[in-house]
Amino acid sequence: MQKLSLNQTLQQKLSPQQIQFIKLLQIPTAELDTRIEEELEINPALEEGMDDYDEPNAEDPFNDDYNDDNFKERNDDIDLGSYLNEDDYSGYKMQGDGNYAEEEREMPLATQSTLTDSLLQQFGYLDLTEEQHLIGIQLIGSIESDGYIRRSMQAIVNDLAFSHNIFTDVDELEEILKLIQTFDPPGIAARTLQECLVLQLQRLEHNEPNARLAIRIIEDFFDEFSKKHFDKIQKRLNISEERLKKVIQLIVKLNPKPGSVESEGGTVQYLLPDFILVSNNGKLELSLNSKNAPELRISRSFAEMLDTYEKSNKASKSLRETVSFVKQKLDSAKWFIDAIKQRQTTLLKTMNAIIKFQYDFFLTGDETKLRPMILKDIANLINMDVSTVSRVANSKSVQTEFGIYPLKYFFSEGIATESGEDVSSREVKNILKELIDNESKESPLSDDKLEKILNERGYNIARRTVAKYREQLNIPVARLRKEL
């Protein structure tokens, strides 16, 4: 006999409006303009407004003007007045507001030829056959941005056969590759670091007396050199320590990434902060970057179109479909403006909480004033979820009088001291970096010695934590920091 049963389950799902807000919240200011332009293109009911609008209330960053009701589904009965009242959905004036059209001026960017352009220009001066020319172009196209060719010669031979119907062999490729390796910058088109260094040293051979010995060290003792076993190299070559020191100094001046010399020019990139923090007579004042959002409003003509349709005869099926389409676009535009406005409110609340937590640092710029702070501390302060704070902190930055800082810079773990106080792990990292910078390079400090020094200064820290912080600072182990 079939039994019927009734089960009750509770599920939590995000509405389309909440998803839209989350996506807008996590993108930085530099990408927001593009996102808004996309929305303006696909939604005719949304437009940029240039009217006078009310200032946002940023005085109280902990006054939440938004709640879950903002994301509830709209009723089919539309209040046309809400669409026609543009003042309710203003562009949100921020620092730098004014004539928006005048502010949006194109800035000329300095450009420079790319690495590939430079190599092709040099390659054009060679007297080669048509087939050799195509092989050379294939080789240059295989050079990566740092100047290396990492594809095997046999793979490039296969590419030439399949793509250009050119049948060659590795030996011919090697001959043309040697020609390309004579181009500038020195060391270009090398396949390994070892080959890159040798190519650069060969350029110095006629003018530098130690270049020949340096080439021998790289070719015959590269493993010992990379591990800084200088005593073994000195013993094997039977040379003085002073001579070895000069040769090592010559090698370390070489460029391990020759391609970076040409690629640095490219297009100039500008860092666009999301927040601007200034000190006015000892009082910190925070504002959103004026480019966070243009002034947006519901299209009056689109809303009036709906009003006209509502007053007409609704018997026609095509007319009902048109009314439904217009309502959908109006709702979508209103939801987008709500999401933009809530994004700005959330950004201000989160940043104001960070300033409140790290007030001494923002006032003085002294990194020792940074307090231990995790995402949960800010989430508790503004009564929001940790994931929301994480999205704000992930890709945002603030411009201060001491420079531009990513928000993640202010989040750090706490380290206990002998007095029982907690200090920021960033403070410990700064001390660790200072110790390593001032150490004797002939006898670098090991992690054990660094641990003892930090413990003597009152920081309760284990050796494995010292190693973790050192790796986060991209500092190699003591053996690799050794110098003659």
What topology emerges from the helices and strands here?
Blueprint: H1 16-26, H2 29-42, E1 46-48, H3 80-84, H4 100-103, H5 115-123, H6 130-141, H7 153-164, H8 170-180, H9 193-204, H10 211-220, H11 222-226, H12 230-237, H13 241-252, H14 259-263, E2 275-280, E3 283-288, E4 296-298, H15 300-311, H16 317-357, H17 359-364, H18 375-382, H19 386-394, E5 397-400, E6 403-406, E7 414-416, E8 422-424, H20 425-437, H21 447-456, H22 463-472
Parallel strand pairs: 2-5
Antiparallel strand pairs: 1-4, 2-3, 5-6, 7-8
Helix pairs in contact: 1-16, 5-6, 6-7, 6-8, 9-10, 15-16, 16-18, 18-19, 21-22
Account of the 3D structure:
With 484 residues, this protein is of the alpha+beta class. The chain folds into three domains: 16-98 and 273-404, no CATH class; 115-263, no CATH class; 414-481, Orthogonal Bundle (Arc Repressor Mutant, subunit A), CATH 1.10.10.60. The protein contains 22 helices and eight strands. The protein has helices at residues 16-26, 29-42, 80-84, 100-103, 115-123, 130-141, 153-164, 170-180, 193-204, 211-220, 222-226, 230-237, 241-252, 259-263, 300-311, 317-357, 359-364, 375-382, 386-394, 425-437, 447-456, 463-472, and strands spanning 46-48, 275-280, 283-288, 296-298, 397-400, 403-406, 414-416, 422-424. The strands form three sheets. Strands 3-2-5-6 form a four-stranded mixed sheet, covered by helices on one side. Strands 1-4 form a two-stranded antiparallel ribbon. Strands 7-8 form a two-stranded antiparallel sheet. Helix 21 crosses helix 22 (463-472). It starts with 15 loop residues before the first helix and ends in a 12-residue tail after the last helix. Mean pLDDT is 78; it is low at 51-107 and 263-268.
